[in-house]
Amino acid sequence: MERVIFYTLALIMIVFAIASVTSRKMLRSVIYLLFVLCGIAGIYFLIDYNFLAAIQLTVYAGGIIVLIIFSVLLVHHIEMELEIAKTSKQILTAVTCLIGLGVFLTTIFSHDFNVVENSMTTTTTEIGTKLLSYGEGGFILPFEVISVLLLAAMIGAIIIAKGKKLTDKKTI
Amino acid sequence: MIPGISIYELLTVTSILFFIGLYGFITRKNLISILISVELILNASVINFVVINKYLFPDMLQGVVFSLFIIAVAAAETALAVSIIIGLYRQISSVEVKDVETMKH
Per the domain annotation, does B83 fall within a domain? Predict the structure, then answer.
């Protein structure tokens, strides 16, 4: 059963990822990306990390996709077709990527992983305790740093997007 | 871990996703499309963190915590990139890569 679900998800993800990077219509390529992200959330559900799947669905499918769709609608006409690279460049890039993929796969398949057979589930409580613990192996410092980073990104985004008006006010 | 699925199959899928993202990153000529490709690459790396944590070190949580941090950084990066794209569109009315070289002055 899990095999069938996994292979279906993998097929959906790969097909829609290819569609997303080759589609010439902007909005469609964003929607294809949404399908890929939902497939990744499905992988997290399969692998038994429910918290991460929920995060993936809310932050990516709910937040980032909406942001990108907004920016597409603000800067494009919906049916506008994009210009794409020359065919020779596309073929060259595809061949390079295939060679890189071959190197990756030979490295992965020649490495012997020490897989631990297990069926543990990770609860949200454990993740929260780990994130906020001061002790050995705790993640309190990166957690605080990431909150400051998010605040800085938010202020930066507001200032960049408002740009001219703010600087004009300053000079007056 | 997923019963019946080995770590090799999962790592194969993430490698394929990574290289699709890389292909898009090089061939697309549009800032928003490049942003989409970067999202694909980041997501492939996040799945790698989670899978290796679950299959090789199931009693630890480092992979999950790091994937949370990667998702947070990706969200911040997308917000900044979108605001830069919109500001740029106001200035030069275009989001094509070849028109952006005026930024370097």
Answer: yes
Residue B46 within a domain: yes
Contact yes or no for B71 and A56 at CB 8 A: yes
Domain that holds residue B11: 7-104
Amino acid sitting at position B54: K
Are A40 and B47 a contacting pair at CB < 8 A? yes
CB A158 within 8 A of CB B87: no
Neighbours of B102 (CB within 10 A): 10
Counted domains in chain A:
2
Q: Across the interface, do A84 and B29 touch by the CB < 8 Å criterion?
A: yes
Residue A139: domain span? 124-172
Q: Would you call A109 exposed, middle or buried from its count of C-beta atoms within 10 A (0-12, 13-18, 19+)? A: exposed
* ipTM (interface predicted TM): 0.90
Cα of B48 to nearest chain A Cα, Å:
11
Residue B76 at interface with chain A, using a CB cutoff of 8 Å: yes
State pLDDT tens for residues A78-133: 556 666 678 888 899 999 999 999 999 999 999 888 888 877 778 888 888 888 88
Specify the 3-state DSSP secondary structure of A127: helix
User: Do A77 and A3 lie in a common domain?
Assistant: yes
Confidence (pLDDT) at A130: 86
| DSSP state at residue A116 | P
Chain A residues with beta carbon closer than 8 angstroms to that of B5 = 2-3, 6
Residue A58 · residue A64 · CB < 8 Å: no
Which pTM was predicted? 0.88
Question: Could you tell me the two tokens for B69?
Answer: 């941090």
CA distance A84 to chain B (A): 6
Burial of residue B37 (CB within 10 Å: 0-12, 13-18, 19+) is: buried
